[in-house]
């Protein structure tokens, strides 16, 4: 379902002289937007040049600059266009419907917009931070408008919930919906919409566990200064999360780790990309490494899933920065590492999906994989949105993860 790029169409007409005249297509800006969305989605904002986009369209850079003055202008327009498409989808629900019907139509509209703009939704999720402050504010306001509209309908359906609990559910729903931008698995659009729409509604249909009464903030891990290898990795992940991989230098990492010079980093890692790859291997190994013990140490698939869910929520909340970096910076991992990491992730998702299908045999293998991706994305989004707020305690987030997977 990836948004496909399109090449500039060329038409011609033959005049009285018989010479062919190139005709500029009327939808050139739409073609540019579609091609740039795919390029940005594949390589990230920093990994794409105007020359790359022009080449994908089969036009010159000069022709591209006639439509857009800069790469940033293209990036900004695409992200805010998709943000606006989400607010439009929310507003399209009929005021005359019941709240339950309006909520269903809102979810369907948001899913349709996500499917139609899959590549750009990935940018909104992970690279919106590269917008300039005024533009980031617009994007944040668009998201707040969507979440507020979902809150409003949920408040009618679940009047006993607090405003913070309503926002917990609406944030979870939006995470499920936009999760399809985090992977490349395919399902027919109607099947996908039904599957994820039903998963969203399942979040609203049961009583939430109690909020935590004490802080669940993780105890900071103390790393001895002598463990420079580990200290460099942790500081690098923190910097990549805060500033984005392209905006962090080896010098920045060395300084954060208390090293006197960037050259000291190279005693432990070959470079910045090697640090990123090491962080990714750690994240992937945590998810894959939990599967064997969970299956071996429990009586059935439901119990194994319970154990895996608890572990996934704990790991994600303990290492929030690593969880985001894993998704946001994948395109910067060296090519030889990407294939290995993709294979680890594929096998992990496949095992989670197998356990899910053993509890819910009505699901196809592809549907189960979509739900696993949706559950992962929702947990990461809730961890980022709520931090250590007891409203989004681990027990509640684990409960919501079970609802997504098991209905």
TrEMBL record:
The keyword DNA-binding applies. The keyword Acyltransferase does not apply. The lineage of its organism: Bacteria, Bacillati, Actinomycetota, Actinomycetes, Mycobacteriales. This is TetR family transcriptional regulator. Residues 49-68 bind DNA. Residues 1-25 are annotated as: Disordered. It comes from Nocardia mangyaensis. It comes from the Bacteria. SUPFAM superfamilies: Homeodomain-like. Residues 26-86, 226-287 form the HTH tetR-type domain. Gene3D superfamilies: Homeodomain-like (1.10.10.60), Tetracycline Repressor, domain 2 (1.10.357.10). Keywords: DNA-binding. Pfam families: TetR_N. One of its GO terms (molecular function) is DNA-binding transcription factor activity.
């Amino acid at each position: 379902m990836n948004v496909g790029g399109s090449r500039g169409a060329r038409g011609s007409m033959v005049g009285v002289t018989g010479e062919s005249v190139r005709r500029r297509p009327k939808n050139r800006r739409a073609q540019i937007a579609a091609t740039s969305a795919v390029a940005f989605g594949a390589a990230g904002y920093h990994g794409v040049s105007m020359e790359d986009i022009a080449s994908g369209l089969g036009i010159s850079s000069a022709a591209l600059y006639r439509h857009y003055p800069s790469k940033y202008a293209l990036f900004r327009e695409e992200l805010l266009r998709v943000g606006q498409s989400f607010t439009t989808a929310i507003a399209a629900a009929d005021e005359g419907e019941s709240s339950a019907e309006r909520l269903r139509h809102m979810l369907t509209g948001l899913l349709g917009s996500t499917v139609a703009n899959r590549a750009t939704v990935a940018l909104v999720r992970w690279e919106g931070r590269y917008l300039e402050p005024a533009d980031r504010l617009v994007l944040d306001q668009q998201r707040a408008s969507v979440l507020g509209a979902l809150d409003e309908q949920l408040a009618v359906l679940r009047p006993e919930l607090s405003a913070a609990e309503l926002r917990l559910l609406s944030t979870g729903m939006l995470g499920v919906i936009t999760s399809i931008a985090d992977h490349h698995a395919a399902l027919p659009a109607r099947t996908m919409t039904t599957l994820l729409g039903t998963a969203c509604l399942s979040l609203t249909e049961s009583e939430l566990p109690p909020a935590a009464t004490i802080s669940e903030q993780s105890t900071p891990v103390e790393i001895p200064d002598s463990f420079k290898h580990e200290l460099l990795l942790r500081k690098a992940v923190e910097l990549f999360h805060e500033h984005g991989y392209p905006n962090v230098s080896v010098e920045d990492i060395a300084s954060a780790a208390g090293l006197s010079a960037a050259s000291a980093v190279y005693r432990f890692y070959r470079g910045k990309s090697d640090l990123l790859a090491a962080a990714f291997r750690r994240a992937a190994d945590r998810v894959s490494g939990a599967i064997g013990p969970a299956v071996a140490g429990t009586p059935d698939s439901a119990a194994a899933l319970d154990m895996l869910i608890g572990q996934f929520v704990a790991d994600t909340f303990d290492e929030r920065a690593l969880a985001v970096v894993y998704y946001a910076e994948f395109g910067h991992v060296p090519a030889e590492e990407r294939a290995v990491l993709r294979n680890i992730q594929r096998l992990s998702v496949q095992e989670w999906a197998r356990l899910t299908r053993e509890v819910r045999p009505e699901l196809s293998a592809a549907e189960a994989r979509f739900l696993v991706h949706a559950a992962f994305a929702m947990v990461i989004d809730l961890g980022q949105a709520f931090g250590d707020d007891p409203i989004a305690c681990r027990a509640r987030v684990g409960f919501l993860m079970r609802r997504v997977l098991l209905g």
